[in-house]
């Protein structure tokens, strides 16, 4: 079963039960929402502000 830490956002998978005030069962529905880029990321990409990984470390 998967669990998500509501404080840190960490997701773990384990065969044992997890308890604690910050852990809740994770269904996976929330991860689908996060796959789409934020409006800020989309705006930066449209303006050409995104970093080009191909040139990283060439200086």
Write up what this structure looks like.
The chain has 59 residues and is of the alpha+beta class. It has one domain (2-47). It has two helices and three strands; from the N terminus they run E-E-E-H-H. Strands 2-1-3 form a three-stranded antiparallel β-sheet, with no helix packed on it. A hairpin with a 5-residue loop joins strand 1 and strand 2. The protein starts with a strand and ends in a 12-residue tail after the last helix. The model has no long low-confidence stretch (mean pLDDT 76).
Average pLDDT: 76
Please tally the β strands and state the result.
Answer: 3
**Structural class by SSE content:** alpha+beta
Q: Can you summarize the main beta sheet? A: 3 strands, antiparallel
- Percent strand equals 15-25%
Helix count equals 2
Helix proportion: 25-40%
Q: Roughly how many Å is the radius of gyration?
A: 18 Å
Low-confidence stretches: none
The general outline is: elongated
Terminal CA distance reads: 46 Å
H/E series, N to C? Answer: EEEHH
With strands numbered from the N-terminus, the spatial order across the biggest sheet is 2-1-3
Number of domains: 1
